Amino acid sequence: MATDFWASSHYKRWIVDRATLKESRSDDLQYVDDPEYLDFFAIFFANVITKLGKKLNFRQRVIATAIVFFRRFYIKNSYCETDPFIVIAACCYVAGKAEESPVHIKNMVAEARLFFSQQPYGVKYFPSDNSKLAEMEFYLVADLECDLTVFHPYRTLLSLCKKESSNDLQTEAGEVGVGVDDGPRYWGSGDGQLELPDDAFQLAWSIVNDTYRSDLCLLYPPHLLAITALYLAVVLHGPTRELLQHQSHSVEATPVHSSPRRSSRQNSSTSSSHSKKPSQDFVAFFAELNISMPLVATIAQEIISLYTLWERYFEDSDHVDSARGTFYGHASAQTQPAVSHSGVSTPVENLEDAQRPHGATPTFLLQVLTRMRENRLSDMAHASSGRHVAVNKMLERTQAAG
Amino acid sequence: MSTKHHLGDSPISYHPSAASGWADHDSPRIRKTSKAGFRPIGEPSSAVKLFFPRDEDDDEAGPASQHKSPASPQIHSEVPAKRARDEGALPAPQPMQVLPSIVRDSLKASIVPKPAGSGDVSVSPAQQSHTVEPDTEGTPRPSSPSGTTCKDLYAIVSQVGEGTFGKVYKARNVITNVHVALKRIRMEAEKDGFPVTAMREIKLLQSLRHQNVVRLYEMMVSNGSVYMVFEYMDHDLTGVLSQTQFSFSEANLKSLCSQMLAGLAYLHRKGVIHRDIKGSNILINNRGELKLADFGLARFYQKRRRSDYTNRVITLWYRPPELLFGATVYGPEVDMWSAGCIMLELFTKKPVFQGNDEIHQLDVIYRILGTPSTERWQGLTALPWYELVKPKDVIHGHFRDLFSRWLSPAALDLAERLLAYDPTQRVTALEALEAPYFKEEQPPPELPVDLSTLEGEWHELETKRERAKKRRKLENGLV
């Protein structure tokens, strides 16, 4: 059933472990100077997909699906052997169809060609031929094993939060099965809803958006990402943080010290009944969800390290919908102009000397990608004779097969 | 022409252990893929690498492109994206010395440790790419020729239908001898690639499981085509109603009707509108089980917020009046009208409303059910095409007179509720299952298990062919 995450291919086939991820990058690791660049690729390509998706007027959900397709594809393929730009176009194209926002192949090719030809990408080779995209689409769908239903954290987020005002975040409208019961929870036991101020909810939403800039969507089920985003939002959002601190103080002040968690819940139930509305007990809320909080903490760590990495990634037009600023608002404002403006024209050597340990720009990453491909190709050019034998064998077979 | 032509002549799907049989491939078989039939995650994809060869200026281009062609017979890949890439764009274009990526792949393949005693099992990428490992993820592939590897082969038996987006074949799993239906998805590279209807059907069926909805076992990629692998159903309703050997009892018909409604009730509860209920999309097997099929037009709908859909859905004869009046905002009621048509057809053996075009279709409906009025159908005048297609004269319905020779009073009641003009008055699938026809009136429903005695398999396609043959014979006889 569409709403049953646990029976879905997403859960059964597409949640992988770190080792698998590492294995999937093994080819790339041979050709990249610094493994960290591959993490920058994750940010860079997600940004490319997001921007292209916006050009195509995709809803956030469609963009997210396209990014998940991209990540799933690169579990089985390496950057140095494929052209990520045509893969991106195919991911967007398939995601549009899979999420009921189809784009005509002609428009898709035109938009992608135009967008990729601009700076910083400067991709001039994008095929104008529709059939190339169609062919790539076929390979993509095959590598996706025809599993086109993707679950996203947004639904969990919406079902967990009682929003102060109903805003324009109904982006899930087209979601598979959403009409059924508006998303019954497929996990945990809690049934409460968190009352969050709009901006705190928006923050959680943006954190979810940001998780797509890493491999998190391959590692953890979406509901855990949503809960982690909420958890981070509650901690980071000024007013709710104060509330939280206030609550934890009052917990300490209560006489029942043996079991702080339960006391906090009691505290909330008594206080929320007669005091002002927003003073609900966040700690109790998370406790009652009956999910692994240590796992949530792990994910939170990973999200934070994503932001730490991202802090050293410089792209001209960063997205307004990112929660990055909440983590490192000041820093990016200071460093960004200096690097990203010069980055376009900085020679490779300079970048390597001065910035390699520090950060990356799109231009730099594109150079890295080019070099990876070149290295790989020159590697193959010096192949031992054994490889030619393999080719000939194949040739024979092919001929035998007619 | 035939299935053999499509599937047999380039057996790209290939398993290493079967390598010795490479040249011997004229049987119309295609390879099934493992659980959905693809490489386990983590194993590199090589199909894709065919798309990214670096073979320009290279002698090796020959084998590489030769190699390509069987892999994607429909989609040609003569212009590698790489070529243009190397011509500029990237900061430091260097003359690249290249070998086809295939070289690397085959190298890889030969590096992959083989189970002992596997002999010559080096795989070429194209083979590998469409090869489907048996359902033993993580465990080494059994390589004995008689092992499970061959189990993943289907032999095409015959064509049994024509779906929304491609032909449907009957095929046999050559090891288990279990029959399946293979639906080949037609790709049109020039148009919009992978058909969106196919994508819908795949997504929907992967998420549905019910005894009255056809089961999608898995997806399979072979020979550059995507196949959907379904459970095999011996007949479809159109076919089975057209034959004269076997006739259904009252109780059998009641069972078929209730199974159809149970399937619809499940779909509607899941938020799915089928939008193409008709005889050839209702399948029946020899155990008397009925299942709904062909979800190419189906889609999810929202219970609370109704949105605009196209009204160009549902085969004309089964299309409800609101769609004929141009409604674009509708819900699962459209399926219930079609179900009403099917219910009558079960008894009369023929589609009841056989219009030639939209206007005529309404006319045919009026002649049986009478013309709709605002008393019978409140929203009638507000419908988009009301002025264009509204009834000219008042016709009184004589539905009950017409059908009382076939249907019992309780059956007539239910059919009437299914064929209510006003969609808001139309009975839902769940309500219909509670109707006195099923709950009170004798006899109780009974699965038509005796269908297994019926000779042959009856599908609309065969019925049509049979009819065409007869007609030809008749014409010849006359001449």
From TrEMBL, chain A:
Source species: Suillus discolor
Keyword Ribosomal protein in record: no
Domain Cyclin-like positions: 47-142, 193-305
Any single Pfam family the record assigns to this protein: Cyclin_N
GO biological process: regulation of transcription by RNA polymerase II
Keyword entries, A-Z: Activator, Cyclin, Nucleus, Repressor, Transcription, Transcription regulation
Disordered: annotated span: 246-277
Protein name per the record: Cyclin-like protein
Gene Ontology terms, MF aspect: cyclin-dependent protein serine/threonine kinase regulator activity
Automatic annotation (TrEMBL), chain B:
Transmembrane annotation, as ranges: none
A Pfam family per the record: Pkinase
Principal EC category: transferase
Annotated GO MF terms: ATP binding; cyclin binding; RNA polymerase II CTD heptapeptide repeat kinase activity
Cross-referenced SUPFAM superfamilies: Protein kinase-like (PK-like) (SSF56112)
One GO term describing the cellular component: cyclin/CDK positive transcription elongation factor complex
Residue ranges, compositional bias (Polar residues): 66-75
Region (Disordered): 1-95, 111-149
Reactions it catalyzes: [DNA-directed RNA polymerase] + ATP = phospho-[DNA-directed RNA polymerase] + ADP + H(+)
Alphabetically ordered keywords of this record: ATP-binding, Kinase, Nucleotide-binding, Serine/threonine-protein kinase, Transferase
Residues reported in the UniProt entry to bind ATP: 183
GO biological process: positive regulation of transcription elongation by RNA polymerase II
Biased composition, class Basic and acidic residues, residue ranges: 79-88
All residue ranges annotated as the Protein kinase domain in the record: 154-438
Keyword ATP-binding: yes
EC number: 2.7.11.23
PANTHER family the UniProt entry points to: CELL DIVISION PROTEIN KINASE, CYCLIN-DEPENDENT KINASE 12
Family classification: Belongs to the protein kinase superfamily. CMGC Ser/Thr protein kinase family. CDC2/CDKX subfamily.
Name used for this protein in its record: [RNA-polymerase]-subunit kinase
Species classification: Eukaryota, Fungi, Dikarya, Basidiomycota, Agaricomycotina
